[in-house]
Fold this sequence. Notes:
By secondary structure, the protein is an alpha+beta fold. It folds into 2 domains: 5-46 and 149-213 and 340-379, FAD/NAD(P)-binding domain; 85-141 and 215-337, D-Amino Acid Oxidase, Chain A, domain 2 (2-Layer Sandwich). 33% of the residues lie in helices and 26% in strands. Strands 5, 6, 7, 14, 15, 16, 17, 18 and 19 form a 9-stranded mixed sheet that branches. Strands 9-2-1-13-21-20 form a 6-stranded mixed sheet, covered by helices on one side. Strands 3-8-4 form a 3-stranded antiparallel sheet. Helix 1 runs parallel beside helix 6 and helix 1 runs parallel beside helix 11. The site of flavin-adenine dinucleotide (FAD) has 44 residues, from helix 1, helix 2, strand 14, strand 19 and helix 11.
Amino acid sequence: MKKQKIGIVGAGIVGLAHAWSAAERGHAVTVFERTARASEASIRNFGMVWPIGQPEVSRPVAMVARERWLRLAERTDIWVDQVGSLHLAHHDDEWNVLREYFDFGKDGELGSHLKLLNPSQCHALSPAVQPNGFLGGLFSDMELCVNPTNAVRALPKFLNESFGVKFHFSTPVVEVGAGWIRTPGYQESQFDRIIVCSGHDFETLFPEVFRETPIRKCKLQMMRTVGQTGSWRLGPHLASGLTLRHYSSFRHCPTLKLLIERISTETPELDRFGIHVMASQDDAGRVVLGDSHEYDSDIEPFDSAEIDRLILRELTQIIQLPSWQIESRWNGTYSKYADGIVFESEPIPNVHIATGLGGSGMTLAFGVAERTWKRWSQES
Length: 380
Ligand SMILES: Cc1cc2nc3c(=O)[nH]c(=O)nc-3n(C[C@H](O)[C@H](O)[C@H](O)COP(=O)(O)OP(=O)(O)OC[C@H]3O[C@@H](n4cnc5c(N)ncnc54)[C@H](O)[C@@H]3O)c2cc1C
């Protein structure tokens, strides 16, 4: 493929992933980011690289991304921990779904990654598992943990030093056309190909495209504890039975509908705020806790104390921490494409939009970008 000049809008994980894949292929890449440093969804998440949440069709993309995260850890000081994940069952219906998922996967590609564990095996993996009423868990060795703020803010340095990728921070793109990007002061830069990775802010640059697209905005509330004392570690990422109704990878489990029905009958407030609970621990020992899901016109700019209370209520039923003292609370917003793992469109020749990865951008972005760049390299 002829070496090209590539312009990228957005230094979130999707923009950075495309920059990395393009630069590795020898293209000259320039990234424009409107803020002084990445500040949106890509730094506000759990830092879970989460192949287990992906259905069969997108799991290979997640596994490519996983390999790239590990490669990044080898080449930089970006922290990537191969923690795996543990789904916990504190109700019979949760245990049934986990067993069904395991039985379905055990003879296929997933088989070598999964283990169905009894309570004492789970306790050996994580001191945080709440023993009251605990029935067992599903361990997967595929999941990684990153510190999203540090990783996403360190990536530009790596891309610049290794491949000469240029970054223009504090530089909003105000218009994109065929082969050009316009920034304030009518500065115009020319490119062979432009990739727009502006996250959930899609209406600013291409309002007509997005009006026609089945894409939703989703706001999540999150919390983080203070650093846990001493060398205490959570172990794998932990997810509750509530999570089984959130990720589409569990949808084929025949008894999932019973679990969904129980939750909507017993605790409708969890459905109302889209609450399912998970925990991960960063390299500073802080435990990241979440989350809730509010969509589109239901999104309020104000964070709700009630949502935080419900998240903590559910978490304390499934995990125990040395300290529950909350250090930070925040929200994040992502865009989610309804008809696939990513929304890709070329509204103008050689202007490519890539967004809508929903709650899986950290899991998928490196794989999505590789897939796209492979396709473009073969086409030329
Ligand atoms: C609370 C929360 C928890 C999550 N947890 C996980 C998780 O554990 N695992 C996982 O896989 N995924 C998770 N996700 C999803 C993941 O964070 C997102 O899918 C991903 O970060 C989206 O990346 P992005 O690059 O598309 O968007 P963003 O991170 O929003 O980046 C877009 C960038 O474009 C810039 N931009 C926008 N418009 C312009 C413009 N006109 N000019 C210049 N720059 C512009 C913005 O400033 C921004 O920096 C979570 C998301 C949230 C909100």
